[in-house]
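Bug report (template v2)

What were you trying to do?
Predict the complex of my protein with zinc ion.

What happened?
Run completed; filing so the output is reviewed.

Input:
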Amino acid sequence: MNKGTALLRQHNEKRTLTLMRNHQYISRQDIAKALDLSKNTISLIIDKFIKDGIVKEIGMDEKQTGIGRPRIQLSLVTEAYKAIGILIQNEFCKYVVTDYCSKILEEGQMPVDGNDPDRSIEELAKLCNTLLKKYPEVLGIGLAVPALVDPVEGVVHFSSHLNWREVRLKERLDSMLPAKSKVLNSVKASAIAPSSVVPQEVLTNSFYLCIDEGVGGAHIVDSQIYSGASWSAGEIGHLPVKADGPLCTCGQRGCLETLVSLPAIRRRILKEYPGVKFEGSILNQWNQADGLDLALDKIIRESGEYVGIAVSQIITLLNPKYIVVDSPFEKLEIFRNAVRASMENRSLKYPLQKTNLLFVANVYSSSVGAAFAVILDFEKE
Ligand SMILES: [Zn+2]
């Protein structure tokens, strides 16, 4: 087989894997049709996959009607390939081992000294080596870091969260491990993580907005995160949404993050109610203290309005099919209505009608997303 033919065949094999990952059962005929390839080409690929233990035949398609050759249903052997995903935080890391369809096979936490990159890398290498021995089918290791990350070189340029500067994380880990690593920003890792709540179709074209201790985002097209020329695309937390608003860590005033992140909301509540204790989540306060409700209503409604301003700019600039707002305020109608109204007042009407706005809370996992990034890269290679 010449080089061109071999490359083409490999490309078709990867496309077949992607298609099969998205279909629990599928026949050779349906794969050929979906990928616009000949049945013969698909048969050769599937024969090889069956021989390698990646695909198995399940049985006849019982729904098949009419004449024609009987269609044998195929299914991926999802444990034939695996991936490791790790979220690095200040005091610990969360890790998962997943199968090819992102089902978690093992998960856990390990203490790391997140403020010391050298020690963290040694601890991470030890953990990965243990997991790689246990799961030799692992394709690679995805690392989600709360930082400005160059995902191509795997360099962590800057993390205020971890106090890291210019850490060549991929290069250093790869030199200590038998598998390759992939480094990505933790919000962006969340954004591509498969979730049982959100349809997989969202990954075809969406903007993900996450409100937590900070505010971050990611623009996703065809399951790929758009990172920008210097890795900061999607940083919706630094869109200015209020003239003369609070001063942000970035030096601007009125960034979305200064108004709707959890620390910002806590600050606002404290201003209204000095001495309020934050035990558990902010929303526990919602129903606990008498008299808090009115002021909280106002704070949550205004937060929704700021989010709506940012979302309308995303609709105009990027025209995504889905916008996913991931926040602890998901259940609050007052928040959802305020986001919608504010967005509708400011967006171009045509793209607005075509945009699906979804509210979720805690349905994504950065470590599962990091593992999934490894699988997506494998299918792209
Ligand atoms: Zn800012």
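What did the reviewer find?
The CA atoms of residues 205 and 355 lie 10 Å apart. Residues 200-360 form a domain with the Nucleotidyltransferase; domain 5 fold (CATH 3.30.420.40).
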